[in-house]
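In keeping with the milestone schedule agreed at the kick-off meeting, the structural modelling team has produced records for the first pair of proteins. Each record is given below as a sequence line and a structure-token line. The laboratory manager (R.T.) confirmed that both were archived under the project's standard naming scheme.
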Amino acid sequence: MITIVRSILAGIAVSLALYGQAQNIDLKTWPEKANPITVGRLVAQRFVESPHNSFKPPAPPRSITYPEVCTWYGALKFADISNDKVLLEQLTQRFMPLFDTEKHLVPRPWHVDFAVFGTVPLELYQQTQNKTFREMGMRFADAQWSLPIDSPQTVKNAYQKLLDKGLTWQTRYWIDDMYMITMVQSKAFQVTRERKYIDRAAHEMLVYLDTIQKENGLFYHAPDAPFFWGRGNGWMAAGMSELLSSLPIDNANRPAILASYKKMMASLKKYQRKDGLWGQLIDKPESWVETSGSAMFTYALITGVRNGWLDAKEYTPIARKAWLALVDYINEQGDISNVCEGTNRKDDYQYYLDRKQKTGDMHGQAPILWCVNALLKK
């Protein structure tokens, strides 16, 4: 009899434990190390204390680079969602020298990697209502669809053909374009409420998806580099998420973009590793765990669940597992490890496996902050 009672009690204990675990499969309840506010404060403050980013330290940067822009933007969004006025002031003061003593660091908007800079002043305008920020940011957004006057005529002719198709002259069909282009255009729409900005971003996105998305929902690094590189795919995942978050329901391209997004998320679900993250090469289990791409995927998944684009029951455990795994790579200083260094395309499998793994690189810092904001969003 005693044995039977003990068995029943043990069964009840197991059931309660499993029930407790089930109740915690959400995107709201976290252990302290994974608490979005805790992580956000740590990583945002690390950014505030960091010098301007450069691809080749310790040489001083020639201009503000896109990894810094993306981290700056993430920190600004965290300041807003957490109502941290002190952080907002710190991030604003980091920007102010760009109008004066550091104006040489403001990039020219002649390339997608530089045009995305406009995202930061536009976000600063939204939070401060300082029109100087708006004017600067809009110059970058408008430049993407304005023919550059200082280009040779033969180049202008090629650019004009793209503009005639409703595409930016900066179109290259590179996967990271779909964050760099759609991000600044989405912000311009949020600031001005002029549909042309978001509508042209959606058209650009659809053309890219029709051109470069593969049957499995993922993307090669380039046509001549047929590898599903993690961070490259991360830019696409994040870009679609940002665009869909702002894109009006009545935009004709929205259903096709959403379908492509869901197709990619289903593939990422398939390739998620047992530890919760994704590899340097997504479909190659022998490749090393890479955190910047993994964080971008996590951001896209959280955003999809939060907005109802993805089935919550199916995708919440995936997003939760990924976030819990990511925070284990963040050290006490607020730096995330296992970040792939800057990587150009190459038709060489071993090249991708041999890329250096960095700690504290802003390619990885940025999407951690994006995840924080997505988790905190109501």
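The second protein of the pair:
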Amino acid sequence: MLTALGALLGLVRDQVIAHLFGAGAESDAFLVSWTVPEVSSTLLIEDAMALILVPAFSLAVARGSVRALLRRTLPALCGLLGCVALLVIAGAPWVVDALAPGLPDHALAVDCTRATATCVFSFGLVGYFSAALRAHSRFLAPAAIYVAYNTGIVVTMVLLPGGLGVRAAAIGVAVGGACMAAIQAPSLWRRVRAAGPALPGARVPGVGVALVAPVIVFALSRQAQVLVERFLAAPLPAGAISHLNYAQKVAQLPMTLSLMLCTVTFPVVARAMGAGDTETARRRVERDLATAAVVVLLGTALVTACAPQIVHILFQRGAFDAADTAATASVMRVYALGLLGQTLVGALVRCYFSAARPLWYPALAMLGGLALTTASGAALVRVWGVLGIAVANALGISLTAVLLLTGLGGRSVPVRVPHVAAGLGKLTAAALAATAAGRLCAGALPDPYLATAAGSLAVAAVFLAVAAALRAPGAGAVLAALPRTARTLTRKLPDAR
């Protein structure tokens, strides 16, 4: 629930930015600086830091060597992050030139980049704290980080003087990063104080270059897709980067929700692989893939069917006009084609790194997808403009997902690839039927609110019905969970009051 709330507050943040700055040269300048927290989030919170440290802390918890691991890694990490943040601040003009050559408002982008560069340090602490807490099976504080982050950004934009323009949003990013670290620190401190002495002869899990390097290459390659998109979009008419950004932010919500389960079960898979229990890991991973696919494909169908209405409701006010709505909705529908691939990559890579051993295959698969994104994007942007960039994103991430799925069995958790692929095929068929039904219902109503409601109901009903008829994996679990969740809430809410 906290993760979902954080994602919704992210939409509120984007609504405020769209209302105040629209989709033009000023918002483009801020979004170039936004690349710094995006890359930092991927490296230091979502991917690299978690993939490296969750298995390490999981082993440390089992061996009773948590404090030793903290003493070995935290001071060095803080020193490294501080140096990198200062380098980005000093080199902000060159960073902007590299990210978006020819950007109309170069000076504004430099100012914003210097403010957002503080996230290199704060996000590093956030990712470290999150990994340690998840390994202790403590998920409340890590789940609340984006609630704190987006609240900090929105409050800062509202409170700072209007004369700062979009710089207020960049300052808000710095404030939000500090809030993320602060909300986790008390919980981690309690866990460290409660940690007992190390077991006799216990070893501190290693976090060496051989383990770190392939994870960092994978994470950078994955985030480089965004850099390629903005690089290709920079020469296009003003607003192209903004349309692409708003479309991604909305379309990625189903992916964010679908990966919540994998985030919680990652320590379980890591402990099972560390103990040599590959059968438990296999069952857990196959179940997670099916459930994540149900959520993301249901969301993909909704986003594709009701894209204009959703963008109208969320953003069309202030400086964001009807032309921006039409452009963003078109990009969002194309970008949604790669959501299943995005989800599979996020879920499968946790399997590869769950055993805490060096493994280069995921990085090579991601580099292959990035190469396809770059080559196809450079070709298609000349024909379709920003839509060509969205197509290239979907092609590249889908290739990476296929490579990771087909290569998993012999390198990590021994999942049954044909079984998983067949289940994904059934769920995709259900999503296609749901998209058609949702678009038909949404298009029949002129009011965007009523159209979105009707389209959502049609998508959900048709998707679950077709998935159940095809006996697709995960659909039955979702249907069974609805009444169970209702009963649980009914029982727990009086206690909460």
